[in-house]
Fold FAD-binding PCMH-type domain-containing protein.
Amino acid sequence: MEELRAINNYDDCIELGASVTLSEMIKTLLKHSDESVTFGAVASHLKKVASVPIRNVASWAGNIAMKCQHPDFPSDVCVLLEAAKAKVKVYDVCTGRIVTQSVFGSDGATLSHFNDKVLLSVTLPKLDDIKLKFKTFKVMPRSQNSYAYVAAAFRAGLASDEDRIENCVVVFGGLGSAFARAQQTECYLKGKQTNSMETLKNALNILSDEIKNVTLEKYEYNLALGLFYKFYLSLCDPSKLGYGISSGIGSLVRPLSKGTQTYETDPEIYPISQAMSNISSDIQASGEVQYVGDETPTTDELFCTFVLSDVANAEIKNIDYSIAKDMPGFVKIITGENFPMEVKNHSHYDGLSECLAKYCIQFAGQPVAIVIAESREQSKQIAESVKVTYKNVQKPVLSVQDAIENNSFYPNNLKPFQMGNPDVAFKNAEHVVSGEVDLGSQYHFYMENQICRAECTENGGFKLNVATQAQLWIQKTISHSFGIPSNKIEITTKRLGGGFGGKLCNSTIAGMAATLAAFVTRRPVCFHADLKTCMSTFGSRMPYFMKYKIGFNANGIVNCLSCDVYGNCGSAPRAVRELAGVQRAADSAYFCPNQLYKCYACKTNIPAPTWCRAPGSLQLNALGDIMMEHVASYLGQDPIGMKFANLFKNGQITLQGNLVTHCQIRNLYQNLMESCGIRSRQETVKSFNEKNRWKKRGLSVSPSKFNVKLTWQKYAVLVSIYAFDGSVVISHGGIECGQGINTKVAQVAACKLGVPLELITVQRTSNISAANSTSTGGSTSSEMTCASLVGCCEILNSRIEPIKARMNGKEVTWKELIAKCYAEDVDLSATYTSPTLPSQSYATYGVACAEVEYDVLTGENQILRADIMFDCGISMNPSVDIGQVEGAFVMGIGFWTTEEMKYDTNTGQLVTDSTWEYKPPTTKDIPVEFNVELLKNAPNPLGVLRTKAIGEPPICTSICVAIALKRAVEETKRDRGLNEYFPLPTPATVKALHNACELDPLSDFNLS
Ligand SMILES: Cc1cc2nc3c(=O)[nH]c(=O)nc-3n(C[C@H](O)[C@H](O)[C@H](O)COP(=O)(O)OP(=O)(O)OC[C@H]3O[C@@H](n4cnc5c(N)ncnc54)[C@H](O)[C@@H]3O)c2cc1C
């Protein structure tokens, strides 16, 4: 309706029709921002509501109506409109009357007056009195596209001399459904002084009483008082505030991001080492690129969806699909009970996990049935209609602590591993500290959800098009479950929309679902999981709990450590394998001559975790850094210098028993210290912290060492040259996951064959052309694929060379040469698989520095600057490799600061199973200034083509962000005499950091 889209600008107000979108509202208010004290602030706050695409379609009226329907929805719009003195015009359908009202009712909380009514328009008055103060806040788990922990808006009219409050409105969102306006506080403030400790303290006490009973958690309570304090400070004369107090007024302002990328290339070996974008980046940017789900379905294709259990630790009583069978599009339902007799009910070739639970439920989110239907939407609707009932429901064991309490462990054949003699060393240690580190999970957050298309073939086999990092494991699983030979299973994968380890062993679950559905229907079937299924069924990063004890001398030189590592291996024993990798990861960047590690595999009722970018290495490298921080804190030393003193150097022996050679870590650390001016920045941070009571900065430097072994990966490569135009096609066994493997392969082929890059195409991975290739993971797939590729090129060159030689130095083009080869019956295809290189192991080193600013009153923070210096050997492609460094570091920022997987302690259900609750970092969570440098002139003699692994290692440096944040928290605690060492809050969310500050608003919030 045109009227509902109207925007009217009157002398004293702006009127917006009910269907005006939030984006249009922002635009209008900004256009007239100089006409009202409130307009600019409301518009700025609205920019923090949802995201641009949502604001472009969402209306302010829809938002209010949603709040009416769901009173616990933390609506920013309601808070803003109420504080901006807006009036809403409402049409009562029953009486035909139109009434104009403020947003909240007379109790300052309810919206019942909008129930069953139509919102017509809202009027925002032009409040242009310069004595009017208006401020709004939104504190979120991350910097954008999130609900608010607490939103607040304050409006105060001041007397002409600005030392008295004439009227005040205090509105909150997020403090529960029964509270919005702090009416008693508003009432008290009427006529009270600004610049008055008495006013502040009384107001805080009254507000505290008002919200004490409505807020659920201490954080929200503290935050509400903190936001009020911020507002009150803004009413005061800054010259009358105590030293550093005015730092509480403003919120953190994010400037435009910037950064540098520094690297060296070697034109002698171009296009190897040449910086260039991913060869498919253009079609990715334009949207033309095709993932499995983009390929056109065949006309007879069906779709299948899992029915998921919604409890953990129970038995299935009944699965009722009586309604499902009559729903449109229904084709078939498979359960554990009616599972085809001739197929093994396994989701992995190890035979230890069921494809569909038959009796026992291990975790909430476990598949109990597969619904097959004519369309994806129908299969989802039908799956939702299936009713599963349970018996013998037990309280789930979810965390490591639960497992310890219940003595729930997998049999563990991992022997303790040690070097030196820790027992003796501890006895002789000058100092010993001990502590605990509790690290949670992380969802892989690939953009392309788990997907597989499967169809039966004429010979009793299957053809699969699947998003997987591990074709071999799917092939083995299907061969095992269906009892057919491997040569009847054809698998292709063009590329993945991200994997990060999540599509390694767990993509077999998707592969089995689609193949099983194809088997029972004899039609092509697509399984395409939604986000909730991916998050709650497929398993994420393994949570770790570590208890450490570390012995050192008065200079902080570490001599011994012992550590108990508990891995939450969830509901299937396959995750125990990750713990085996702990030994590889354990020694981090620091040398310690006497060490003992014991690993414990906890059996719990969460989905079996799976490898996730730098599994074990991320946690164990972080442990090294956390322990160093603890030691430095104990000794009262600067951790940055102390860390350097403990770094590895050539000639030392690692925990794995390797002699350290070509060690770059000290070199990197020193370079970073100098090039980033760490010492002088430490001084600047110190002086900032002295001057600002309510904003603090923290700076930390963290080194990492990622141990690489080329012992298990091998990838077949097929290179063919077409005789009629000399173009080259490559199919290899690595999987393009966005890590740029195809780009590197094309560069290496161009260099080794001596042809232009444009002549080369890399086609999809197939288990026929690249049989027996191992999974893509562990960061060395690009390297090892290129090693095979070099072998292919050498074979081809050895066949081409004699023909070229027979041309007696005659200048011929590549095309002519290849045509001649063809004419002379030269085989223009070559395949080669580089053997594993068991003797070749090396370490990838990196060091990063993060500087953060922290708002003590809210817990909000931003990374002002991050510098990373990384050793990548001779980078095959610095653009791609720096992309990996930046991406891994930002994924680490998510792990350390915003991403948290939480389970319902009664049902075991994942609570954070959508983007509403689960918050990976966004564009405004990355460092404001982000500088990455690849170490120059550092060829790796132990790697393929003198390069180094890069996909996972840089995430290990991201711990510096969490430590820098902890430093900022330490600074504010020190201001209040709280000098005790405290553990790093993990993840260091806005809420956890604020809680760690141990603020007492009623006594800590002062004017002097
Ligand atoms: C990912 C995401 C993030 C979000 N983040 C935030 C956030 O941070 N802060 C925040 O405040 N909101 C947030 N929202 C909510 C968003 O702003 C609301 O979805 C939006 O305002 C709803 O508006 P709509 O026009 O789409 O309503 P619709 O979905 O069209 O309607 C919602 C309800 O309102 C009713 N309705 C619509 N118009 C009227 C009318 N004129 N009179 C009576 N009833 C009406 C509809 O019948 C329906 O019942 C978020 C939403 C999403 C999806």
Remarks:
- Residues 781-805 form the longest helix (25 residues).
- The longest strand covers residues 837-855.
